[in-house]
Amino acid sequence: MNDHPKPQPATSRKSGPLFGKARLPGDKSISHRAFMFGGLASGETRITGLLEGEDVLRTGEAMKAMGARIERNGAEWVIQGTGNGCLLEPAEPLDFGNAGTGVRLTMGLVGTYDMKTHFLGDPSLSKRPMGRVLDPLREMGTQVLKAEPGDRLPITLQGPQRAAPISYRVPMPSAQVKSAVLLAALNTPGVTTVIEPVMTRDHTEKMLAGFGAALEVETDTEGMRHIRIEGQGRLQGQVIAVPGDPSSAGFPLVAALIVPGSDITIENVLMNPTRTGLILTLQEMGADIELMNRRSAGGEDVADLRVRSSELKGVRVPPERAPSMIDEYPVLAVAASFAEGETLMEGLEELRVKESDRLSAVANGLKANGVDCTEGETTLSVRGAPEGRGLGGGTVETHLDHRIAMSFLILGLATAKPVTVDDRAMIATSFPEFMRLMTDLGAEIE
Ligand code: S3P
């Protein structure tokens, strides 16, 4: 895990039909939480299907630094947790690399401990706003001893002797902020309430309940979710099978749609409705995606997706759908580049504060490859060129963003000319198998 390696460019080119079965790595959101909650709970947690990407491994290292024992035993990760309320002060700064989820959730987790914790990140993470997590923590009694201007990393937190439970309305649609408050509540006496006006991914609620937390969720008449959690209870280690990551599924999925003659099956994809906005949108665009073998695994719906290349048409993607596909806009923009007509994506303000300013990074990457698009303050409109006529030939700046790198390598599989990305290194943060999985399907990427 080196923070400033020499950039490693990669190039993709027009490929023949993609065929075969793809088995995805585990879901990133669930993998982070599995390490965290397992590291915190009493007794043993065993995890299969964990995403062994750099981001998740950083979270594992952080939990180890605070007293959890974590070992890989064949295909299984085995954790002996500290017990709720029993994390230890880490001796060294916790370095989260590129991982927003890891750092924000861990700040919540330790923010109510009477100890000092230092947080670090790579240049991309150090540009991202942390105030959204620090604000509710301050209300609970956490002191921010050190932060860069605008509440940015490196940050040092000191928790109170006794944290105060709060009622907190999450001001932006963010599962990370919701989760940080819920995790801070675990070491806080009394009941903490998180009010969520717009539902975001609900893995924290579901998994904490599974670990035995006293947590209840109620949706009021206006559709707001009220999540109440009683702190200082016991959490018990669990057995967790992590389903395949629907965000990672987006890459082979869009590839198969845009490369003519393709027919692939992506196995074991998480179908939690807070995560399936991309599939819905692509289906509206005319994508041939068949959900097969729908089943329940570890408390989540999963399915295999059979995907055949399709003629796509542009659609309007409404802003209220954004939380269920927030990480998938870059690859949706790639699909839209091959669609007939305009695809208008609205409500994209959160894309500005991801691993990069994804709205600009996507628009610039598309323009560099001849795609007709317009970047608005919170919107992106793409006018496609069916069959990728005249597209490609550009080099894309990835800005240390794994999803920008993967999305544009998918673009190049169906454009007239090859597409180059300036650095593939960050792909390892979320999808270390990406290159091999894609080339096994027949993609020409090197
Ligand atoms: C995540 C929440 C989302 C998402 C990120 C993972 C999570 O971030 O973009 O990749 O696991 O909670 P926000 O909370 O900033 O929307």
From TrEMBL:
CDD domains: EPSP_synthase (cd01556). 3-phosphoshikimate binds at K28, S29, R33, S174, Q176, D327, K354. It is found in: Cytoplasm. InterPro entries: Enolpyruvate_Tfrase_dom, Enolpyruvate_Tfrase_sf, EPSP_synthase, EPSP_synthase_CS, RNA3'P_cycl/enolpyr_Trfase_a/b. Residues 1-25 are annotated as: Disordered. Pfam families: EPSP_synthase. Pathway: Metabolic intermediate biosynthesis; chorismate biosynthesis; chorismate from D-erythrose 4-phosphate and phosphoenolpyruvate: step 6/7. SUPFAM superfamilies: EPT/RTPC-like. Its EC number is 2.5.1.19. It catalyses: 3-phosphoshikimate + phosphoenolpyruvate = 5-O-(1-carboxyvinyl)-3-phosphoshikimate + phosphate. Monomer. Belongs to the EPSP synthase family. This is 3-phosphoshikimate 1-carboxyvinyltransferase. The gene is aroA.
